[in-house]
Design goal:
Helix content: 10-25%
Number of domains: 2
Distance between the termini: 17 Å
Largest sheet: 7 strands, antiparallel
Number of helices: 2
Number of strands: 9
Strand content: 35-45%
Amino acid sequence: MYQTSNNYKASIYEPSTRHVLKIYINEIEIDMKYVLACKLSQTLFTNDEFTLGSVTSQAVELKLYKSVVPETIHSIYIESGITGEIIPIGYFNVDEIEKDDDYTVTLKLLDNMIKFEFNYDGSKLKYPCTIRKVLQDICIKAGVELRFYFFFEPKSRNCSI
């Protein structure tokens, strides 16, 4: 979760507020004149099944001019916000590519939650161990970066592991 300022909270829904969207493909920012649409959504029940511990996965449908989409996509990163305060939306994986016509392409993206869809085996850990150690092990096996945010201090610290 990302902490926003009081200014952000006060102005984000104002009609006069100019919203900012930044999209990076392979760490190169895409000029907004090439972005035709960006739709964010969250899904929890893709298989009509609820299980304890279910977490929403964020999906993005991104329509771009074909000329700015590289042949190989290694990473997609999206940020949004207002002038002066940009917040991360996240890193996304390409789930599907649709070539709409000769000029445009639609990328269907899913966040890294899809990387956690595997049967976890924690038998190699030395028990007893902390929940943090289990979480670190799961993230390593899923290939997902683990970040800790501390909100109880006056200024947040970000500790990457």
